[in-house]
Amino acid sequence: MERKDYLLQAYHQNQSEIDARVREGIETYRKGNATLRVQDKDGKPLAASVRVRLKNHAFRFGANCFMLDEMESAEKNEHYKEKFAEVFNLATLPFYWKDLEPQPGNLRFAADSEKIYRRPAPDLCLAYCRQHGIEPKAHCLNYMQWSPDWLPDDIDETKRLLEKRFAELADRYSDEIPNWEVINETLCGCARKFFYDPEIVEWSFATARRYFPDNELTINEATDPARFVWHNHYIGNRIPYYMQIERALRKGATIDSIGLQYHLFYRREGEAEASRMLLDPTFLYKIHDLYADFNLPMQITEVTVPAYSREAQDEELQAEAISMLYRVWFSMEKMEKVIYWNLQDGYAAFAPQGDMTAGENYYHGALLRFDGSEKPAYKCLCHLIKEEWQTDEHGECGEQAFAFRGYYGDYEATITVDGTTHTLPFTLKKGAENKIVLTL
Description:
Elements: H1 3-6, H2 9-13, H3 15-29, E1 31-39, E2 48-57, E3 60-64, H4 74-87, E4 90-94, H5 97-100, H6 122-132, E5 135-142, H7 155-173, E6 179-184, H8 200-211, E7 216-221, H9 240-250, E8 257-263, H10 271-278, H11 281-291, E9 298-304, H12 312-330, E10 335-340, H13 376-388, E11 392-397, E12 402-407, E13 409-417, E14 420-428, E15 435-439
Parallel strand pairs: 1-15, 3-4, 3-10, 4-5, 5-6, 6-7, 7-8, 8-9, 9-10
Antiparallel strand pairs: 1-12, 2-11, 2-13, 13-14
């Protein structure tokens, strides 16, 4: 069976119903009404022509930036940076303990630290984020599968050294990185003793909260539908991840947001069965509504949608799937971030550069090809974020305010009064009254 015959079958069977829910959700949860008036310094209303244009969504669209200055040529590095900033307003930064502290006390924080593949130093990543107005996110405080080789396999000593790590990271980065994944993939396997400590989740959040009192703290888990997050038969609140979160909250863990990975890491021959569930929008809404029980924001923390090849049809199907997924996620009430994983093919985990048969490269799951050219998936995201989900409104104000409805986020207002044009920023905030007053 060809991919086009099964990949989005569930969506197409219920397309009108799903599209209606997407439109309603986006209109309800991603947009709001606002009024804008212009005044002089004495508070007197001014007659003005106004244009308001969204510059940056409040919703976060991201990717990991693990290949920042990691490629084999300066030209590729610059192209990667340009394409990343063109579409994303969030970057996931690598804080894997194993690579951030390869030897005890050897902390690779500085931009000029020794290179480790797919692990650019935090200071380098943050400088790039500042330059382009991109929000950084940290992955991850406690990820036991990526512990240093030198870490003793002793629970008490692991806790002591983890707390030291938390303190060092908070001291250097808590003011600049608002969102920290606290613990990751605790439903997967690991050989270390602390991984099996019954209180590992609760301890990690209690310790993180001491050092990151004002940051958003996220729990994160792997995709595996047969066991963890999504489950290949809907069993409601008996999904293991749901039960883990429920237990942690009951025991006092201060979880601020729920992370759900979405890697479609299935061999091509198994995709038809996997897509039956994971590309069914009805199922995706059902999972959202389940985790919404906790009344916490959600993030799709890691997304990979495979193309499997460079064939035009495969790349077009990847784009079509991504378009459907992003529309559904963007329409969900509790969703706040969607983070694609790899921007460029050929640089995924567990594979040599450019070997598209090995590791996660096998899936051809990125948005750019290995040579940096844009796949249809990249163009699709650019269109959604920069064009379809855009607010660009014109009007007049004076004694009466200019009223408009727009996407939540940061705006630029272009104001013309008596032939003189001014440009001023403002923000449209969810949950606020949004009576904007700009003073010239």
